[in-house]
Amino acid sequence: MNPLLVEEKIKMFLKEDIQYGDLSAALFNDEEGTMTLLAKESGIFCGAAVITCGFNIMSPAAVQLLVHDGAHITCGQKIAVIHGRISDLLQAERTVLNLVQRMSGIATLTKQYVDAVEGRCRVTDTRKTTPGLGMFEKYAVRTAGGTNHRRSLNDGIMLKDNHIAYAGSITEAVRRVERYKGHMDRLEIEIETAEMLDEAVQAGADVIMFDNCSPEMISETITRVPAHITTEASGGITLETIGAYSQTGVDYISVGALFYAARALDLSAEVQNV
């Protein structure tokens, strides 16, 4: 993650939460204390940079990280120990925990999907990120062994069903987009039928996405894709079905559920006087 963006985002989140100040924080003046972050359930940890940055924005703090991103943590395990001005630690606590819990939940779910394909292909995410949190969420996927699909709209060219429908055909959509395509831009085309697959190959796709296709349909038609074209399966794929898709021969399986179905991993914070 870009450390400049991490700091900028966390500052924005803290401004939203603190607003004009924390009335409870006035209780402590400039007293110092120690905060310990704990896991309340098992999973994959992600968010070390958020902890280090988040607890140092209000005032300098000493952060001791006890686990690294991608590590498996268990209930009751200590994640980090932070020493600093207690009022500032408490003001940052909820924002930092919310973000780390979200990232760790995504990493935990991603690891389950990665394990389910048993190395037969790669698990990748989608652009179904939470607005404002995409950088953190996509980093969490990478932390757990997944890969990132497009990070933004200009990260490659993707012609989906609505682009193709408006243009009238895959061939026409590709013709129109060629004027903007640079030599570094890869072209992905979404297909749903064998006929669309053939047209996408002829149109010059770099990547072909089998969208909402059954594992049987993919297995039957993937041999029509030349070896130089990357293949991807997508559309409502779950932990229960990803095993079948991983055996079709596709290179990637994209899973929107890594974001919209991920549950935050439960973490907590405890403070001690010094």
Outline, from the CA principal axes?
elongated
Spatial sequence of strands, sheet with the most strands: 6-11-10-9-8-7
| Tally of separate helices | 10
Strand content: 15-25%
Annotation, overall tally of beta strands: 12
Secondary-structure arrangement, i.e. CATH architecture of the largest domain: Alpha-Beta Barrel
The description of the largest β-sheet is:
6 strands, parallel
- Relative helix content: 25-40%
The poorly predicted ranges are none
State the CATH superfamily name of the largest domain: Aldolase class I
Order of helices and strands: HEEHEEEHEHEHHEHEHEHEHE
CATH domain class of the largest domain: Alpha Beta
SS class: alpha/beta
Any idea what the radius of gyration is? 23 Å
Give me the CATH fold name of the largest domain.
Answer: TIM Barrel
Q: Kindly report how far apart the N and C termini lie.
A: 34 Å
Mean pLDDT: 95
Structural domain count? 2
